[in-house]
Amino acid sequence: MLKxxxxxxxxxxxxxxxxxxxxxxxxxxxxxxxxxxxxLMEIIVGFALNMFFGVILDKKFANIHQFxxxxxxxxxxxxxxxxxxxxxxxxxxxxxxxxxxNFDIKK
Length: 107
Known about the structure:
mainly alpha
């Protein structure tokens, strides 16, 4: 229920800020724009209610330190089917092999 109140406070403060900005434009005082204190307090209270009751009290936190498998860093990033070219010869080796024949460039 309090999450809904926090959300409504944020919506109301956004509408109030839009109306205040339009009022300043109508009065030709747009260069003196600042957020009024009541709207600022409404934003802070709405944000605090949403953060406290929406995040902290839900307690649906997942443990990010437990992994289903225990792999080392090298095992996790080992890709046997991925060949990384080393230099210009490695990049062009497949092209040369197709054009000239099957031989090894790296001798």
